[in-house]
Design brief:
The complex is a heterodimer of chains A (323) and B (108). With 323 residues, chain A is mainly α. Helices cover 77% and strands 2% of the residues of chain A. Chain A is built from 10 helices and 2 strands, in the order ααααααααααββ. In chain A, α2 packs antiparallel against α5 and α7 runs antiparallel to α8. Chain A is elongated and about 115 Å long. Chain B has 3 helices and no strands. Classes of the chains: A mainly alpha (323), B mainly alpha (108). Chain A: Keywords: Signal.
Chain lengths: 323, 108
């Protein structure tokens, strides 16, 4: 009977401890962040393609003659060709993704399931021993009741969970608070400097180079065209102009996704500082990452499924032009 | 960044000019546009490859924190393994006691 007292006390401690344990939200944050960051890679691909296209545009705008060897030079433009020379954007994104992955691993280490199996095995063995005792001693009463032996097994599982959850909570708090300043700095650098500042501005200028070529063609032919021909040609030029305006759509979406990760991380850090592992604010911030990620997916599927042309509509946003 | 922005602005401005020109004049402006465009491209690539000292420092700092998270996870995993080992040892001991009891029962 003596062991029953500490057991009941421990059970109460366990129940109160579980209420503040770090569970789903941090893990969900880490998963959502990993998914969103993988999309930044597609922006790098788009930039690579645009650079190659830009060189072909410059070739087409000159009166020079070309041979096959001139195209071979285009391969050197691919920024991912040298793996040792990773882009700052990729290094920064990879650093954030590794962090998110480590955070997800830390958030789930020592799960209840793992420890429950150990506890269940123990309960089973105790029950067997109980039966043997009754048979050997010829006692009608068991050494311990069935209820008690299963409680002991549960105790092992719960004590383990309590211990690991407490330790995990302390570690998560330390890690997230220490990571917040570099996460904010990197997020800002990725979204503002690298994505918007470098890639978006270059995409815009490169699309402009191509558009100028079409204007030059139009201007060279305009004297020989009637109204209908000019209207048709100008409509086509306008479509290309709109296309340039939407060139940076994926950059905007990626930038938005990175910003929502930064925001969610800042919310988490703030809440953890106050000892809150789960809150409505964290839930909302994580939800925003998922919504931004979904928007990115929508755009991606729109781009991949569009059989005509992607363009910006002032009222509808990015759309697939009707065939 | 400012230099890249200036180069892009100049490229965009020349793109609004050369389609209106012809002959040598057009070729001269186009050549100038190409020159600035290539400079802008090189500068963009340089920025994307090198990043800034601030970015590198933040990457290093975050990588350190990531390592700390991995170490914390490993330490917890070791503790979990220990708890499981204790439970397992106790379970094995009770099984051994049960087996012994079984033998004793047969002998008695």
């Amino acid at each position: 009977m003596l062991w029953k007292l500490p057991l009941s006390i421990i059970a109460v401690v366990l129940l109160s401890g579980c209420a503040s344990s770090p569970t789903g939200q941090i893990e969900v944050f880490a998963q959502a962040a990993t998914d969103s960051l993988s999309k930044v890679e597609s922006v790098v691909d788009e930039f690579n393609q645009a650079r190659i296209n830009d060189r072909i545009v410059m070739m087409a705008q000159s009166d020079d003659k070309y041979v096959t060897a001139d195209f071979a030079k285009l391969n050197d433009l691919h920024l991912q060709s040298n793996k040792q020379d990773k882009l700052a954007l990729q290094r920064a994104t990879q650093s954030l993704a590794s962090y998110a992955e480590a955070l997800a691993d830390l958030a789930i280490v020592g799960s209840r399931e793992e420890l429950s199996i150990a506890g269940a095995k123990l309960s089973q063995s105790l029950a067997t021993m109980n039966g043997q005792y009754q048979a050997l001693a010829g006692e009608p009463e068991p050494l311990m009741s069935i209820e008690s032996s299963s409680k002991l097994g549960r105790l092992v599982a719960e004590l383990g969970s309590y211990y690991t959850e407490k330790k995990r909570a302390e570690s998560l708090k330390q890690v997230i608070l220490a990571a917040d300043p570099p996460v904010q700095l990197l997020g800002e650098a990725i979204s503002v400097e690298l994505l918007s500042g470098v890639i978006e501005s270059r995409l815009y200028a490169m699309r402009g180079n191509e558009l100028a070529g079409h204007f030059a063609d139009y201007n060279a032919r305009v004297g020989k065209m009637n109204f209908a021909q000019k209207k048709k040609a100008l409509d086509q030029l306008y479509d290309k102009y709109r296309e340039r305006e939407s060139a940076a759509a994926s950059v905007d979406m990626a930038s938005k996704a990175v910003k929502s990760i930064m925001k969610a991380h800042a919310v988490m850090a703030k809440e953890l500082e106050q000892g809150e592992f789960e809150s409505a604010d964290i839930l909302n911030a994580v939800g925003q990452i998922k919504r931004d990620h979904k928007a990115f997916d929508d755009l991606e599927s729109l781009i991949s499924s569009c059989k005509t042309e992607i363009m910006a509509d002032p009222e509808k946003g990015i759309i697939c032009k009707a065939g | 960044m400012t230099q890249l922005a200036e180069l892009n602005t100049a490229v965009n401005a020349l793109n609004n000019l050369w389609p209106l020109l012809s002959g040598d004049e057009k070729n001269r402006v186009l050549e100038q546009r190409n020159e600035l465009n290539i400079k802008a491209d090189e500068l963009a690539v340089k920025t994307l490859l090198e990043g800034t000292a601030e970015i590198e420092q933040a990457v290093a700092q975050l990588n350190e924190t990531t390592q700390a998270a991995i170490e914390a996870k490993d330490a917890i995993a070791v503790d979990v393994a220990r708890i499981e080992k204790v439970a397992d040892t106790v379970a094995k001991a009770t099984q051994a006691v049960s087996k012994l009891a079984e033998v004793l029962l047969r002998l008695s």
